Predict the structure.
Amino acid sequence: MASDTLTIIDNRTGRKYEVPVHGGAIYAVDLRQIRVSEEDGGLVSFDPGYMNTAPCQSKITFIDGDLGILRYRGYPIEQLAEKASYLETAYLILRGELPTKTQLADWSHHITHHSILHENVKKFIDGFHHDAHPMGMLVSTVGALSTFYTEAKSIFDAESRDKQTYRLVAKMPTIAAFAYRHSIGMPYAYPDNDLSYTGNFLNMLFKMTELKYRPHPVLEKALDVLFILHADHEQNISTSVMRGVGSAHSDPYCSVAAAAAALYGPLHGGANEQVLRMLNEIGSKDKVPAFIEKVKTGEGRLMGFGHRVYKNYDPRAKIIKKVAYDVFDLKGRNPLLDIALELERIALEDDYFIKRKLYPNVDFYSGLIYQSMGLPIDMFSVLFAIARTIGWIAHWEEMLLDPEQKMKIARPRQIYKGAEKRDYVPIEARK
Ligand code: CMC
């Protein structure tokens, strides 16, 4: 008997099946042959929350959650955060290799020269209420770009895909910054092509009346590192949404809008916003033990803690903690830091968190940094979305080019538990 197979005995029928094992997985469709009768549709795997389902093969990001390892295209996140720039990392994630000098210059040129928004796009942003959440503005505006670049529908045309990629990576910061300026009633600041990706983003956020905005190198670097850390994270929910919507062959703007909508949720990218709200609610270090007790009795969660994949310290959280101190040295210590440190100290010693392997995740400290940089809480998930755009695009393209996936729409099965067939009851006869 071949060793790379799985033997299944169906005790309902006594039948025996042998299904191939490919690289640690069985094909779920191989279960379909297991049936009790001709009418039976065959066995399916039931997996709410996709706890143990791999919908694709991917070469982009590797995570070992038990060991706390994260690599993009094989390169450890620690090395990229220390040595690479965000745009260099974005190129790596998309193309699979680190760029040469010429490739990086070309890539940066394309991104830089697509950062301006069509003037009509500004009108959408103008139309939002002054207190609209910037993530809502981002989601709708990036979706609206689909109406400006109709050739984006040609998803199997490599040249068109490249063009939409440049536009998306370039315009996300512009939309985000315009949404921020709109919410504070400031005129929009246009992109400055002389600046780096993150330097320009700071320019669009914070430029006042000066002729030339000069980003502080510490803040520019801190934001660059944060963007690198958020650039991809394999099959998280927003990336799965990108792949799911993309599998219907929707254009990339609509797919990115859907992915960003998933990121908005407080259990995903919205968690950094919730961390800040939680720290504000706790208010002082001495109230931390009581808050932890509340969490342990099931009253809320410790936001910024726990992860579906990491059952160890999130490697991104370790790097972020270092960046936080660089920013605090410049901007002054964020008063909420002491509450965060105390939460972390107590939680890491507490049985409840130890048993469940709950450690700080990427969002635990990122919000403190963003706040110290002068960004309002509402903007935190928007920053995450800018950085993650390249990850979404890389997965979308990988899916489209994968012969196994490109013509397969994502279509999960269900276990139907509803009513049996019954006849329509006229409204007069209903109780
Ligand atoms: N605080 C308190 N208890 C928790 C937490 C938390 N943050 N996270 C999980 N638990 C408990 C949960 O109550 C459950 O306990 P029990 O076994 O007694 O029912 C156990 O740990 C397992 O939780 P789970 O919900 O089954 O775990 P999951 O893998 O489905 O959830 C998570 C992962 C990230 C949604 C969850 O840990 C959470 O809600 N964390 C807070 C939100 C957060 O920080 N999200 C950002 C994630 S990192 C950024 C990103 O990649 O999106």
